[in-house]
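Posting here for the record, re: FE2/S2 (inorganic) cluster.
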Amino acid sequence: MTDLRALPDDVTVDVPPEATFLDALVAAGVPIARACGGKARCSTCRVRVESGTDLCAPRNAAESAMAARLSLDDATRLACQTTARGGGVTVRRLVLDELDVRLASAAAGAGGAVGREEEMAILFSDIAGFTSISEALPAYDVVHVLERWFAAAGDVAAAHGGRIDNYMGDGFMAVFPDAPQAVRAALALADAAAQISRYTTAAYGRSFTARTGIHFGSAVVGTLGAAHNRRETVIGDAVNVASRIESANKDADTRLLVSADADARLPASFLRGRTATVALKGKTAPCRVVEIVGERAG
Ligand code: FES
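Prediction output follows.
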């Protein structure tokens, strides 16, 4: 049993050998933040070990990975991963801000996480040349066209097992369980855009073409927002990659690009077009992207 003293609360708790510091502090009612629910996927439970460092077990692999990512010094530990082998240890909570703790706790509920990490296919889509369309059309007409487009896009996403997560001007982000559903949705979106294009060409003399990017990866699904306006959304590097792949369509003069990770999950029935290695804004390593032009009928 370890005597664990937590500062600035000045609470001392007994920690059984197999229990983590987080387990013991939560059980004692210490308001320690734990945004990922104790999975070493955040750093909100971090503490500084002020004495008894030698009594703490070495970092496990998960904590080592997070420590390396955030350049944590040796004295800064994740309470959810740290155990000790007896004696007395003093730690200081490093996430102290009451608002942080309250937000994390409210979202986490009874010991849960503020989000869950999931693998998914992320689709970004926008309209080629939309700025010139919106400059040429009266604002109400722009809204009318976008309403048609988003209604069609929502139906397409749902029909392929996905959902629209977010709208950004003329663009949107949708998420799907896997890459084949996302790519089939993207192909259906191209058909939906072609229908709208017939209408916009006839009514306004402007074509309407969707550009889409898809990536498969891990992202956090969390509930975010102010108290009166919270909603589930998807956040993470995979989202940024999908957005940048969508942007890469412009220079590549393509309509649908997928990352190599998404492409690896597609069956041979999908018809590949060009392959390119593109530098994605904000990324050091270039990313291989593959153009998808259709799917062979089974
Ligand atoms: S609670 Fe997220 S790392 Fe410990």
